Amino acid sequence: MSSEWDIDWSEGVPMMIGPFQVGQTETSPETAGYWEGVHRGELMIKYCSACDVHLYPRRIFCPDCMSEDLEWVKATGEGNVYSFSTIYRAPLPELEVPYTNGIVKLVEGVYMFGRLVGKPDEEIAVDDPVKVRFEQVVEGQLKLAVYEVLTS
Amino acid sequence: MTPDARNLSNSAAVVASGYHVIGPEQDRISSLELQLQACRNAMQQAGIDRTQIGAVFTSRAPMSFSAMEWNMRIINELKVVPRLSSEITVHGAGALGAWQYAAMAVSNGLIDYALCTSGCMGRRWVDLVKVNMGQEADLQLEAPYHPTTPSLYALWATRYKHEFSVSAEDLAQIAVENRRWAVRHPDAAMREKGEITVEDVLESKMIASPLRLLDCSSWYKGGFGTAVIITTAERAREYDRPVYISGFGQATTHEWITERMALSGIEPSMQPNLTTLGAKPAAEQALAMADLTTDDVDMVETSAPFTFLNMMVLEDLGFCGKGEGKDFVRDGGISFDDGLPFNTNGGYLSFGQAPNGSHMAVEALQQIRGEAPGKQIEGAKRAMVHFHGGPAAAHSVVVLSGEEAI
């Protein structure tokens, strides 16, 4: 399957209407550390040492103390299912259903969105423990962080 | 809220409400024409010409006619020179948010008349499922997992059902009641489908658990454009049956749903949660401005596109406590026969989702003026209208009153 995500974003991507360029979709250096982590097989989140709080990967400064002195840190990748939904009608006809996406609460306190795998979809429940791993959710496409749902 | 803000109550009114409907069998027109026809209709009703329009506020660009700076496209055609103008881009909440900017602009004397317009030809031109996907998910941290729009809202539903033990049957009842209003409205998308039962909802196919087909809104199959003229209360008294803006509020909590879970230390998210909407602070402000309680409200119109979200909205607007929505609905709280009139044209579930939702506000205006195309609520003089957009991200609430009610 050809990858619609396989775009070189390093210089941004022109936004076109017919032959006319009407703007530029910018690249986002602030999330580069997250994607580099995915490539290595590490879940990277941000950390504010002044507040001793972990933050969502995209944060540019700490919303509480306003410090921009944030560090990339490796998360344990462990947490619990906060909520989930199993998709029976996919957005693209080539995707196989069902599959389940959810929001997990990492032990660091950061909530992440991702694919829930490793347990039959109909048995997944709120509060189930999870552990991150990295794989293509669609063959040939970008490797992503996914969350294996463990037996509680 | 300061006493000055309370002075905004009933300081502005809607004096004309234009709309333009294209049915599924009619020839396609552009969303630009759809809105312009509604504007023309509203300006003619109000008896004003283009030189009198002091402000133009639009909702975001139609999904079927994407253009940057949509308000400029409208101004371009109307040949007006507004002193204030913007596209109000808080997703579907912007269409009603526009009325709030208009009320502020006229009530402080900056301008005399404001025009607010919204509308979309929707699925007559585009695959709205695909378009909506690009707008509802974080392109880096959510979209690569192929969520659908219902599946993003479903994350709220799963959590809400988990925390408050809400059953699928409780939620299904909302779809049943909405449909009863829709079958009586000439323009409702589901009018011809007839009434439904709780069993019909529970047996409809699963779209994104726990949401089944009949838990979800239906796209409006044609096009629906609206425009209103808002002016000062003083000037409104020269018009037939003006509808006063008694109170309003907005609250916007996030863009992507996972970011809502990164929000804390501020209402309605002192602790991260997926159970209380921005509708709550918006409604509190609107009722405080109006100096009213929910007991004073005769009907509620919301743009909530799923059964569970309708239940959460009833709670967050203040008609019952958090987690009590299931009891409110079970006890006939929104019964078509004798409950609170709720989504009186059928709502998003059964009238259909005409993007940006202004048909819900038009319904409230028509009910208050005693000219509802569907079932008229006898003696209804006050409405609470709630628009929302994004994955339960942006919320606008307006309390509307007929002259007798203020």
Description of the structure:
The complex is a heterodimer of chains A (152) and B (406). Chain A has 1 helix and 10 strands, in the order ββαββββββββ. Chain A is mainly β and 152 residues long. Chain A folds into 2 domains: 16-74, no CATH class; 77-152, OB fold (Dihydrolipoamide Acetyltransferase, E2P), CATH 2.40.50. In chain A, the strands form 3 sheets. Chain A has a 5-stranded mixed barrel with strand order 6-7-8-10-9. Chain A has a 3-stranded antiparallel beta sheet with strand order 4-3-5. In chain A, β1 and β2 (20-25) form a beta hairpin. With 406 residues, chain B is an alpha/beta fold. Chain B has a domain at 3-124: 3-Layer(aba) Sandwich (Peroxisomal Thiolase, Chain A, domain 1), CATH 3.40.47. Chain B has helices at 3-6, 31-46, 70-78, 94-107, 128-136, 149-164, 168-182, 198-203, 233-236, 257-260, 279-290, 307-317, 325-330, 347-350, 358-368, and strands spanning 12-22, 53-59, 84-88, 113-120, 206-208, 211-212, 223-232, 243-252, 299-302, 382-389, 394-402. A 9-stranded mixed beta sheet of chain B has the order 3-2-4-7-1-8-11-10-9, sandwiched between helices. Chain B is globular, with a radius of gyration of 20 Å. The model of chain B has no long low-confidence stretch (mean pLDDT 95). Chain A binds chain B through residues 5, 22, 28, 31, 34, 55-59, 64, 82-92, 95, 99, 101-103, 105, 110-115, 126, 137-138, 141-142, 144, and chain B through 68, 129-130, 133, 138, 140-142, 144-148, 150-152, 154-159, 162, 205-211, 257-259, 261-262, 265, 272, 274.
